[in-house]
Amino acid sequence: MAATTAQPMGSLPSGLEICTTAPDIFYLPEMVFGGLVWILVASTHVDPPNPLGWVMFVSVFCFVMTFLWMIIFVAGGHKNSSGWAAADFAYHGLAAFFYLSAGVDLAYITMLKKYGVLRIYQIDIAAVVFAFVATLLYFIHTILSAIRWKNF
Question: What pTM did the predictor assign?
Fold first, then answer.
């Protein structure tokens, strides 16, 4: 049976507790899969630039913001207020929406490239899969953050 960390009602985790509590345990997987989208899209020919520019913006923005958000929680800068619980819900909801739109754009562009160079096409397929995995992770984090905010 797995041990769980009991959080008192109305408190947000800080320090290494974020590695053991839901939804905060999703920070690292979100960064890993978001970083993979960033790397894979950057390693291919960016054509057309507009939709893939959006994908790059989303992956870089969410990677940096999730890292900063995680650092704030680790450092205890949130001060256990309900405003941080609401902001956590809002940020992860926005990130899930951004990644969903970026994943759809990337899938569409990948479908248009399917008769091109096979290696680049496979990289684009991997980026699409990782974009939708990142979307799922951010969505789960959003749902769990909403539950935590409601119980705050």
Answer: 0.83
Coil, helix or strand at residue 78: coil
Per-residue CA distances from 140 to 1, 93, 94, 149 (Å): 23, 9, 13, 14
The whole-angstrom separation of Cα 28 and Cα 14 is 15
Q: What is the pLDDT of residues 95-128, one digit of tens each?
A: 999 999 999 999 988 888 777 665 667 888 999 9
Distance CA 61, CA 78 (A): 21
Contacts of 76 (CB under 8 A, 6+ apart): 14, 15
Residue ranges covered by each domain of the chain: 21-151
Which DSSP string corresponds to 2-17?
Answer: ---PPPPTT----GGG
Q: CA 115, 118, 119, 122 torsion: positive or negative?
A: positive
The CA R_g of the chain, rounded to the nearest whole Å, is: 17
Nearest to 128 by CA among 47, 37, 32, 29: 37
- What residues contact residue 31 under an 8 Å CB cut-off, 6+ apart? 63, 66, 67, 70
